[in-house]
Amino acid sequence: MPGVRELAFIRSGHLAWRDRDAPTLSDPGDAIVRPFVAARCDGDTLPIHRPVSRLMQAGIAVGAVDPVVGCICGRVPFKGPFAIGHECVAQVLDVGSGVQNVRVGQTVVVPWAVSCGSCEPCRRGLTSKCATTTGRTLAAYGFGPASGPWGGMVADAVRVPFADHMLVPVPVGVPPLRVAAAGDNLADAWRSVVTPLRDRPGGSVLVIGGGAQSIGLYAAGLAVAHGAGVVHYVDDDPGRRRIAEAVGAHARPAQAGSRRGRTATRRYDVVVEASSRAAGLRRAIRSLASGGVCTAVGYYLATGTRVPVMRMYATDATLRVGVSHARAVLPDLLAFVARTGFPAERVTTLTAPWADAPSAYAARTTKLVLQRDPV
Ligand SMILES: [Zn+2]
Ligand SMILES: [Zn+2]
């Protein structure tokens, strides 16, 4: 069988195509898919845009970075080369003899984390914590060998286990580019606003953006589309503020309306912390109204993040931290996009041809989407 080409992270600022053996059906429940739309997860920009590998390794050694980081992305975090990419829309090329719900030729979303669909955590909706597939911390595409042998999604062919459960068909009429990030960042935004707003209909929403760049924008748009009373988006980047306004939020620079981020002038029922900064997390929590919920979608690598717990006690606040369980929300998310035409593609700031992936994937832009024709 001929080999396949996959995008590999080599080192900070440098990616390249790499050849490897084509994946094969190794279990009757497997499928082989061909991604033709791939988006860059916000988290992927961390090792690409900053030479964090050595720093993080040193940080773990001296206790300044939580050692659990090593369980997710290796004892030497983000050590290249490894196959990168974990948001895609793909076409099914082949299915094993035990696959019943998925057909060859179908267009599907592949969730970023690998899950079985039938274990106890999966049945509870904690699909990214699947007991069957998860070794130490994660089983996922595109994070390197510490998260399993799954490879990246910017590849000619990808093996998907438990295909009947894992692969979620894109509804008829939904443009694949619209749901390019559904397998991770769009689903992450969904859990940060849609679920909390269900319990707080018409609630006010604050999104602190800039770190998890696309997640914050998807969250702002989804909050507007789900009837939030008001949606405020704060970010120092004018381009992202324009996108936030385009999806119906009120945008302002991060410093406006609060003195050095300490004095929140308004309280919100739902807050999304997408700055990936400890100061942003503290601001987010201080911005909560009584009974409010803050979902932190960023990374807080350093130990000693000072969370204002007494403030949380006083406001009866809930803080949600953790990976998104994309597979669990995908059916609702895709049905919503099909029903409403939610224009998630407005968050995309660069659409590049698939062949240009090595250079495009390193671009300093909010949301990159790679595209090629389906077969
Ligand atoms: Zn991701
Ligand atoms: Zn499972």
Question: What does this protein structure show overall?
Answer:
The chain has 375 residues and is of the alpha/beta class. Helices cover 27% and strands 22% of the residues. The protein has 12 helices and 16 strands. The protein has helices at 45-49, 52-62, 68-73, 120-123, 163-166, 185-199, 213-225, 238-246, 278-286, 309-315, 326-340, 357-360, and strands at residues 4-11, 14-20, 31-39, 82-83, 88-95, 107-110, 158-160, 168-169, 204-208, 230-234, 250-252, 268-273, 288-296, 318-321, 350-353, 368-371. Strands 3, 5, 6, 7, 8, 15 and 16 form a 7-stranded mixed beta sheet that branches. A 6-stranded parallel beta sheet has the order 11-10-9-12-13-14, sandwiched between helices. Strands 2-1-4 form a 3-stranded antiparallel beta sheet. Strand 15, helix 12 (357-360) and strand 16 (368-371) form a beta-alpha-beta unit. The longest helix has 15 residues, at 185-199. The model has no long low-confidence stretch (mean pLDDT 94). It binds zinc ion (ZN) (2 copies). One zinc ion (ZN) binds at residues 115-116, 119, 121-122, 130-132. One zinc ion is lined by residues 115-116, 119, 121-122, 130-132.
Brief overview, please?
With 375 residues, this protein is of the alpha/beta class. It has helices at 45-49, 52-62, 68-73, 120-123, 163-166, 185-199, 213-225, 238-246, 278-286, 309-315, 326-340, 357-360; strands spanning 4-11, 14-20, 31-39, 82-83, 88-95, 107-110, 158-160, 168-169, 204-208, 230-234, 250-252, 268-273, 288-296, 318-321, 350-353, 368-371. One zinc ion binds next to loops.
